[in-house]
Amino acid sequence: MNRKELDPEASPGARFGDRLRRLRDEHGWTQDELGERIGCTGAHVSAVETGRRPPTQQFAIGADKALGTGDLFEREWREIRHGSLLEGFPEYVRHEGQAAEIRLFEMGVIPGPLQTREYAEALEAVNVQRGDLTAEQAAERVDFLIKRQSALVRPQAPLVIVVLDESCIRRPVGGPAVMGSQLAHLIEFAEQPNTSLQVAPFTMGERQPFRRLVHLLTLADRSAVSYVESQTQGHLDRELATVLPLVRAYHQLQTEALSQADSVAMIEQARKGTP
To answer: Is the same domain home to 99 and 49?
Structure first.
């Protein structure tokens, strides 16, 4: 029988399906036999394993009970349900936590690794107001971000290079106190020995090469990884032929962006509310 190969790194749903299949195989059960224990058909189990159908909470709870996995599948279901991790992002975060060099570009909002908790909470509070998340889900997303940040604090700290579009420091988030603290945090970040911070001013106009989030990693073996994101989709890429053009464009961005000293001065002006 032909079995579809699963890539657990592709997405949270793919990881759920791969784990389900592996544990089912360990028990020596067919999809029909597991389905009977969960309360669904074997075809439904197959669809979840191969990513053709997302698991429901009831399915995840049933899988935990049948396979004796505590609340493992239910926790993975929450990750899928919350939508906090776009496709490709879980693998990116794992690489980020081990990278030798991290290059970030963002528009509109401060990138996650540089966000204060209060700034992140303000962003998630809007998602709760819109009905996109529950308060519990928003709190879990903020906790995930803080854990992501802590992974960058290690004995061999990575070089972290950040270029912010000017909109990141001009767009108020969470009110004056929250935004003021966030901008002060950026200034503190720029003072670290392993960091670089620049602002790409509005005056760059059409010379600004990126129109969306771009993250670039250099791993310990000197290989390069890129991650780009739209509103609804993320894409991780390790192919040199497609990553290198982004690296070149990033270098061009750094060349035309403000120096770190001028960038910090602009951030300080924004923090004080001066024009």
So the answer is: no
Instruction: Please check whether residue 121 lies inside any domain of the structure.
Output: no
Same domain, yes or no: 74 and 104: no
Average pLDDT in the 193-217 region? 95
Residues 173 and 77 in one domain: no
Beta strands 195-200 and 159-165 are parallel
Model pLDDT, residue 89: 76
Domain boundary among 82, 101, 130: 82
Total of domains in the chain: 2
Q: How many CB atoms lie within 10 A of CB 245?
A: 11
pLDDT tens readout for residues 30-70: 999 999 999 999 999 998 998 888 888 899 999 999 999 98
Q: How far is CA 8 from the centre of its chain?
A: 17
Position 210 in a domain: yes
Burial of residue 274 (number of CB atoms within 10 Å: 0-12, 13-18, 19+) = exposed
168 and 48 co-located in one domain: no
Structure tokens at 101: 């060099």
Q: What is the pLDDT of residues 62-100, one digit of tens each?
A: 999 999 998 888 878 876 765 555 666 777 888 899 999
Q: Could you give the residue ranges of the DSSP H alpha helices within the chain?
A: 12-27, 31-38, 42-49, 57-67, 72-82, 89-96, 117-130, 135-150, 166-170, 176-190, 240-256, 260-272
Give per-residue burial for 198-214: e unless 16+ CB within 10 Å, then b.
bbbbeebeeebbbeebb
Question: Which among 67, 56, 73 has a CA at the least distance from the CA of 15?
Answer: 73
Mean per-residue pLDDT of the chain: 89
pTM over 0.85: no
Residues 99 and 61 in one domain: no
Q: Is 87 exposed, middle or buried (CB count within 10 Å of its CB: 0-12, 13-18, 19+)? A: middle
Whether residues 65 and 164 share a domain: the answer is: no
